[in-house]
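Encode chain A's predicted structure.
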Amino acid sequence: MTTTPVHHFSRVGIPLAAGAAAAVALGVYGRLHDPTGVAINIAGFSSFQAVKTWLATLALVLGVLQVVSAIALYRGRAWLAPVHRWSGRAAVAVTLPVVAHCLYALGFQYGEPRVLIHSLLGCFFYGAFVVKMLTLTRRDAPSWLLPVVGGAVFTGLIGLWLTSALWFFTTFGVIR
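Encoded structure for chain A:
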């Protein structure tokens, strides 16, 4: 069966376009929104930065579990599918308070390279996440698309962790 250019675009282009739109929308909102400075805080943590750091670290651990379980799924270990689905859901869930704080309280910042890279990676991560979710529902998506997009989501998560949590740990210590 041959595919027409329109059909090929709908298989790949629509999820990619939606992800790009989500990434741009987050960036535009973060830049145009007047940051409030209001922070999330959870009892037992010394600051909102500590909360965000530990939630990002938990998301990273769950992201590693995502990669390991995805590899196992591709090797025929179908019994790991629930672990993969639930670790992914949990990873995104723990990033939601972080992104809400970052966008609402801090906005899209570019005053220093680390912060600019972090802001860009945040937009990229959620854009890639949108592409992954849309790819999962497409039975006609090319077989290479889901692993590539999953790798992009994980790469974004690693970059976010390096530019935030690792920076926090090396600047302020693990226990603060």
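The helical segments are 5-32, 48-74, 81-106, 113-136, 145-163, 165-172.
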